[in-house]
Amino acid sequence: MKKIKSIDLCVIGAGRVGVTVCYTFTLKNLSGIKVKAISSRSAESLKKAKRFLGVRAADIIFTGDNTKAAALANCVLICTPDDSIKAVCDNIFKNKKNNYLKDYYVFHFSGSKSLEVLDSARAAGAEIASIHPLKSFASVGEAIKSLPGTVFGITYSSIKSKKVAEFMVKNLGGETIEVENENKPLYHAAACVASNYLVTLMDYAVSIHKRIGIKPEDSLKGLISLAEGTVNNIKKMGTKKSLTGPIARGDTGTIREHMASFRKFFPKDYSDLYKTMGIETSKIAYQNKWIDKNAAEELKKILKD
């Protein structure tokens, strides 16, 4: 394959992901990648994107017309919400003649959607792929700062689209892992567990503290420090060996006390999440051979009762 020389980029979707990608590419002033257009159906989003990009927005066309934006580029990044990707792609490329998009690339940024949502672009001759950053985009500013080193899951239709996807990820400062098309939903489910459900777990822990009179802001200060220490341990030792706490030690009496307190202070089903996580945690402790089979069975019984 010939070396990739130049990508003229159109980004559809002026949300947090789209703006982060545009800003990063324009910040680096790369000779091989030029952002030509940003498109969004929201005029307010376009206004915010233009304001955020500042002087870097001077040579970029901002438009509400996806087709116009795509015509200015040889590579389209669809950064819309997942359920809109197919409709956006079809609106631009459906009913185009085969080979109309020769030497053209269409990528989406969804972690869960398969390549089939880009079928209309492929039918018109484009090379297709998906690029998904394993990253939380809570704000554009924070995402830009922490983007370097991010792992991106890539799924591609050809060696050509793979090379372009890798080229783009490299210039975003990231690393790639390959995800088979049919495995994308589970790949994405794992990302949701590690990020979205972590928020839910922390909120759950704060709510337990709140019930016994600890202010949420005080609770978070302590719990975040605890969680950060755990994440650092996982970085060094992996998941299983980083386990600590009463279940890892086989302290069944402590877990009984937890359950008794749940019954005292909370409605019946409030401990369901705690019990589910406790059972899974006991499996890790048993796999580590830190507790024996009898302790694992006793913990399971306590948590199920």
CATH hierarchy class name of the largest domain: Alpha Beta
Number of strands: 8
In spatial order, strands of the major sheet run 3-2-1-4-5-6-7-8
Structural class: alpha/beta
The CATH architecture classification of the largest domain is 3-Layer(aba) Sandwich
H/E element order: EHEHEHEHEHEHEHEHHHHHHH
What number of domains?
2
Question: Could you characterize the architecture of this molecule?
Answer:
The chain is of the alpha/beta class and 305 residues long. The protein has 2 domains: 7-182, NAD(P)-binding Rossmann-like Domain (Rossmann fold); 194-304, N-(1-d-carboxylethyl)-l-norvaline Dehydrogenase, domain 2 (Orthogonal Bundle). The chain is built from 14 helices and 8 strands. It has helices at 16-28, 43-53, 66-71, 85-93, 119-123, 140-146, 159-171, 184-194, 196-211, 216-237, 246-249, 252-265, 272-287, 293-304, and strands at residues 7-12, 33-39, 61-63, 75-78, 105-108, 127-133, 151-156, 175-178. Strands 3-2-1-4-5-6-7-8 form an 8-stranded mixed β-sheet, with helices on both faces. Strand 7 (151-156), helix 7 (159-171) and strand 8 form a beta-alpha-beta unit. The chain is elongated.
Short structural summary:
By secondary structure, the chain is of the alpha/beta class.
SSE blueprint:
Elements: E1 7-12, H1 16-28, E2 33-39, H2 43-53, E3 61-63, H3 66-71, E4 75-78, H4 85-93, E5 105-108, H5 119-123, E6 127-133, H6 140-146, E7 151-156, H7 159-171, E8 175-178, H8 184-194, H9 196-211, H10 216-237, H11 246-249, H12 252-265, H13 272-287, H14 293-304
Parallel strand pairs: 1-2, 1-4, 2-3, 4-5, 5-6, 7-8
Antiparallel strand pairs: 6-7
Helix pairs in contact: 1-6, 9-10, 12-14, 13-14
